[in-house]
Amino acid sequence: MKNKGNSIPALYGTVASMSRTIAASPSSTAFRLCTKVSPKTLALVLSRTKAKKLYVSKTIRSSLSPGIRRALKRVGVALVDEGNQPGRLKTRSVMSRFARARKLAMHGMDVAKACAKVGMPRRTYYYVLKSRKA
To answer: How much is the pTM?
Structure first.
């Protein structure tokens, strides 16, 4: 399970794997939704557990229909925003590696040596160089 360092069961993957997670956590009062879930799966969570909180990202929340959100609210289940940004933001260290890769290419360093020096795969190196030209 994707538990991110805590004991909240995470629902992700196939319907069968979500069903196993639900069956293994009947007394859990909270679940983390890591993927879009069908109304049938949500009904399974509500009928077989004591869930009162569902932790969701902004993207997952937007995938739930207004009717489902109203129904969850009616039965007393709160949707709690995790505040995650979709995708992975490039950090400063990644951006500086990209800049170093471009600089080494401008100075004519061999591709294999430049990749080893910067610490990135050859494919990523070529992607960085190509994206800079565009």
So the answer is: 0.58
Q: Return the closest-CA partner of residue 29 out of 59, 1, 56, 51.
A: 51
List the structure tokens of 99.
């800049």
Dihedral sign for Cα atoms in the order 116, 118, 119, 125: negative
In tens, the pLDDT along 43-69 reads: 999 999 999 999 998 888 888 999 999
- Helix, strand counts (H, E) of the chain: 7, 4
Q: Which residues contact 117 (CB under 8 A, 6 or more apart)?
A: 100, 104, 109
Which residues in 96-111 are b (16+ Cβ under 10 Å) and which e? ebbebbbebbeeeeee
Q: DSSP class of residue 84?
A: P
**Type of residue numbered 21:** T
d(CA 35, CA 18): 10
- Cα–Cα nearest to 119, from 134, 132, 104, 131: 104
